[in-house]
Amino acid sequence: MSSDFYIMITITAIAGCFWLYKKGKRTVALVRKVRRAFKGVCLNSKSTLNAEQCKKIAIGAMYASQQGAYQNSIETGIKDVLPQILGEWWGITSTMDAKRELDYLLNKGFRYYFPFVWEAFLLNNSEQQDEIFQKNMTSQEDYDKITSQFQNLQETYEELIGCKVITSKDDLRRYGVVGWDAGRICFLARACCEMGYITETEAWDYMNSAYELAHTTFVSWKELAMSYIIGRSLWGGKRSYNSVMKETADDLLTNPQSPWVQYLW
User: Fold this and answer.
1) Do 237 and 151 meet the contact criterion of CB atoms below 8 Å apart?
2) pLDDT at 197 over 90
3) How far apart are CA 73 and CA 241, in angstroms?
4) Which of 31, 160, 206, 264 is in Cβ range 3.0-4.6 Å of 165 for a Cys bridge?
5) Distance between CA 48 and CA 51 in Å, rounded?
6) Cα–Cα distance for residue pair 122/5, rounded to 1 Å
7) pLDDT of 145-156, one tens digit each?
8) What's the mean pLDDT in 258-262?
9) Which of 209, 240, 191 is nearest to 83 (CA)?
10) How far apart are CA 40 and CA 78, in angstroms?
């Protein structure tokens, strides 16, 4: 056989090994995530945070539970998957990216759109619904976002009722989506800090703001949780796994190790 044949076989073998290596890394990361998620409430035994600081971190408890992250420290305990979470999911690979996303969530987020989503959801006429969006959205980007959120709410409304996240349309207005914005600000600040994109002082500034946002809106951890689930439903539609998120919320609200049980609202 010619040398070209052996070269081709060698290249193919190397490519195959590289593919298996990459697939193996993804599989290991997935297994770690599933294992963490089924641990329930994950706590960092080395944490030195006081009760007030833990209460602030607990604003992001739903997001932390999804990822199997620590609930009581800035350190998440999942640094191996943070490049994927931040880079692939959020487009964050630098300090500028981190601050852009965190400032967006803090100053706008889903709560900018929700009053108009709610207003349109009360109507049955598609032309009137679209008129609300056209009237209040000032850019094509905002229009696309609000129509997507509205469609996702239409898709998941009955599911939200079935999961006992809400009992009626009035509960949508009652809970809103502030919990979704605040929870993501909190967890994202921790993750960006751990990756070195923002300082610890900056992370606490964002978490303090998320805490104030939540505490000026809700009167309990339960309200925060239901709001988070509603916001996530508007984000992901049928891909939101609302029943799983409701189970996560129920665990956080009842598990003796949970910060939501340990610390009063």
Assistant:
1) yes
2) yes
3) 27
4) 160
5) 10
6) 68
7) 999 999 999 999
8) 98
9) 191
10) 15
